[in-house]
Amino acid sequence: MRKKLFLVSLAVALLAVAAVVISHPTPAKSEETKSVPMEVKIDNFTFNPDTLTVPANSTVTWVNKDDIPHVIASNDGLFKSKALDTDDKYSYTFTKAGTYSYYCSIHPKMVGKIVVQ
After folding, report:
1. Is residue 21 part of a domain?
2. Which of 19, 23, 110, 116 has the fewest CB atoms below 10 angstroms from its CB?
């Protein structure tokens, strides 16, 4: 009789724990650290926006909408794209806070900035 009561109590406790886990799931590790996508458009020899503020762990994607190639290069050498033709994309994930200035290495007067908070 005691053994039956113990087994019934154990089953009820396990069902209660299962109900809590189902109703309050914890996010998977990848969901907690998932980056936030942001975009900079290259058009008419400009970066739009020219300054983009993002949280840490954000992936910024540059999209070339011009009819000529552009190369995204950071001033400090941290990142550099290949030559981007029309509609080509380049992405970089910013993991640390700071200000990252960049330019087009083909057209150095084209400049932009990523501010990571």
Report:
1. no
2. 23
Of 7 and 96, which is predicted with more confidence? 96
Nearest to 82 by CA among 58, 104, 67: 104
pTM of the entire predicted model: 0.70
| Structural domain boundaries, residue 95 | 35-116
25 lies in a domain?
no
| Residue range 40-55, pLDDT digits in tens | 999 999 999 999 999 9
| CB contact set of 115 (below 8 Å; sequence gap of 6+) | 51, 52, 53, 54, 98, 99, 100
- The torsion defined by the Cα of 61, 40, 56 and 79, in degrees rounded to 10, comes to 60
Average pLDDT rounded to a whole number, residues 47-76: 98
Q: Evaluate whether residue 53 is within a structural domain.
A: yes
